[in-house]
């Protein structure tokens, strides 16, 4: 989203020209080229605000441009710098909110959503899922409020982003629910969106939502729904390709390849081959990426993983309680992990899921990782919402959380997914810190906390962050003294 509302209007000078150039490049799908212009906007706005602490227009412009700069940095593969820009944007919006000059709810939700996409780009999928969960919940509250119409297009955008992340790092059932909701909302808002200055950006998010929808429906055998999504995505991508942007052309190629594969599956072989032939003739690399992604398939859903656990481990008492997580909690729509249950129950269900992970890892690692991630997400949501159990029964739940994080991080590392392993190891180290007050009660908790620190330290060292690795190992050593 381009933040063009609120306190400022673009001035007619160098700053305004740089801002306009950056926005045009973004709309044309050339975000990777917009960075230098955005940097100049930030410099000029900072100069104007330097001697005026109450120059809120300039501060708003800096926050908005830092947010947009993060998108440009992501497009250039500079994800660490993008996270730094998003931190500055968050600080700026929070300052404006604290000063009472701006309702920053939607802006902070956007920062969180873009941070989620940034984390996903760098492979930190567990953090990405939770960041995006918060963004979707924030927008869900906004569209339920008095200014609903204004926020609906961006709610659809955030749902599409959520679907992309959940497809790779979460439950595909949640991903397809989020994607379908995004597609439906985009179509309902077509007239409003087409009149918007951001219509091209919204169209790109519609394409991403249809891709997730088509992939998961097809994988689950719902081929009529998959082809329906394919048709919407292909028509939208075809219109986008008129922009002559290389990014939009790749989107069209991806839509063609995806539809070609799905047509072949339903027996419309000649149509499918024609789509694939056109896709590979236009951009073989982009077409092959889609084919490879479809060949990899989707991870097990929570329901499938629970069914596998019952087969591999035998019947277990909590099966039906955990299966109920696949239905939305009262008053919730099931497109996010936090929609599964209330924060108090989340900790209990997470502990029950965690019991299954270690014995299942030896028999079906993929299903075990699904259950482990879902346990982590529920623990994290319960903790973020400051549930009674996570605040006052820390000694009961935090060790279970730490153990499941350590187990699945080690499993991801063994599978060669080092970034995901490092992400989860960082979470385990944070939980280990919460365990420190309880380490004096016995050696087992201290050993667990130490193991979390050491594992995190080992992965940091492997990544080349030797100073942080040293600190982690020192924290582990202190628990033994």
Could you give the topology of this structure?
Layout: H1 14-27, H2 35-49, H3 56-75, H4 79-98, H5 105-121, H6 125-143, H7 148-169, H8 172-188, H9 190-194, H10 199-219, H11 223-240, H12 246-265, H13 269-282, H14 284-296, H15 302-313, H16 319-323, H17 343-361, H18 365-384, H19 388-392, H20 394-414, H21 418-435, H22 443-463, H23 466-478
Helix pairs in contact: 1-2, 2-3, 3-4, 3-5, 4-5, 5-6, 5-7, 6-7, 7-8, 7-10, 8-10, 10-11, 10-12, 11-12, 12-13, 12-14, 13-14, 15-18, 17-18, 17-20, 18-20, 20-21, 20-22, 21-22, 22-23
Structure description:
The chain is mostly helical and 481 residues long. It folds into 3 domains: 1-102, Alpha Horseshoe (Serine Threonine Protein Phosphatase 5, Tetratricopeptide repeat); 125-298, Tetratricopeptide repeat domain (Serine Threonine Protein Phosphatase 5, Tetratricopeptide repeat); 302-479, Alpha Horseshoe (Serine Threonine Protein Phosphatase 5, Tetratricopeptide repeat), CATH 1.25.40. It is 77% helix and 0% strand. It is built from 23 helices and no strands. It has helices at 14-27, 35-49, 56-75, 79-98, 105-121, 125-143, 148-169, 172-188, 190-194, 199-219, 223-240, 246-265, 269-282, 284-296, 302-313, 319-323, 343-361, 365-384, 388-392, 394-414, 418-435, 443-463, 466-478. Helix 5 (105-121) packs parallel to helix 7. It is globular.
């Amino acid at each position: 989203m381009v933040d063009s509302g609120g306190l400022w209007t673009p001035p007619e000078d160098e700053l305004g020209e740089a801002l306009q150039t950056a926005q045009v490049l973004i709309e044309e799908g050339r975000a990777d080229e917009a960075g230098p212009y955005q940097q100049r906007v930030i410099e000029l706005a900072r100069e104007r605000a330097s001697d005026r602490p109450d120059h809120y227009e300039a501060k708003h412009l800096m926050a908005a441009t830092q947010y947009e700069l993060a998108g440009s940095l992501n497009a250039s593969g500079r994800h660490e710098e993008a996270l730094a820009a998003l931190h500055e944007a968050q600080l700026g919006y929070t300052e404006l909110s604290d000063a009472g000059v701006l309702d920053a709810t939607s802006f902070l939700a956007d920062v969180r959503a873009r941070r989620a996409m940034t984390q996903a780009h760098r492979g930190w999928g567990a953090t990405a899922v939770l960041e995006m969960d918060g963004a979707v919940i924030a927008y869900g509250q906004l569209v339920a409020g008095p200014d609903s119409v204004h926020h609906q297009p961006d709610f659809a955008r955030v749902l599409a982003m959520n679907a992309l992340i959940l497809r790779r790092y979460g439950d595909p059932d949640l991903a397809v629910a989020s994607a379908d909701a995004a597609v439906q909302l985009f179509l309902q808002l077509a007239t409003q969106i087409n009149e918007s200055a951001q219509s091209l950006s919204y169209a790109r998010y519609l394409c991403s939502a249809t891709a997730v929808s088509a992939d998961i429906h097809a994988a689950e055998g719902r081929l009529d729904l998959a082809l329906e999504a394919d048709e919407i995505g292909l028509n939208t991508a075809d219109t986008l390709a008129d922009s002559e942007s290389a990014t939009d052309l790749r989107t069209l190629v991806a839509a063609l390849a995806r539809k070609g594969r799905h047509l072949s599956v339903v027996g419309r072989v000649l149509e499918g081959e024609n789509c694939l032939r056109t896709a590979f003739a236009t951009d073989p690399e982009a077409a092959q990426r889609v084919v490879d992604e479809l060949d990899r398939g989707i991870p097990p859903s929570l329901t499938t993983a629970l069914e596998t656990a019952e087969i591999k481990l035998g019947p277990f008492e909590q099966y039906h309680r955990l299966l109920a997580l696949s239905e939305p909690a009262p008053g919730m729509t099931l497109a996010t992990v936090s929609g599964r249950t209330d924060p108090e129950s989340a900790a209990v269900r997470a502990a029950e899921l965690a019991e299954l992970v270690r014995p299942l890892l030896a028999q079906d690692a993929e299903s075990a990782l699904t259950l482990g991630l879902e346990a982590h997400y529920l623990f994290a949501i319960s903790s973020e919402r400051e549930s009674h159990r996570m605040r006052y029964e820390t000694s009961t739940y935090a060790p279970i959380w730490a153990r499941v994080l350590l187990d699945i991080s080690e499993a991801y590392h063994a599978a060669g997914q080092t970034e995901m392993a490092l992400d989860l190891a960082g979470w385990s180290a944070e939980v280990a810190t919460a365990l420190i007050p309880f380490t004096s009660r016995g050696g087992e908790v201290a050993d667990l906390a130490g193991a979390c620190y050491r594992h995190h330290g080992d992965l940091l060292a492997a990544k080349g962050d030797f100073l942080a690795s040293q600190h982690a190992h020192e924290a582990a050593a202190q628990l033994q003294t």
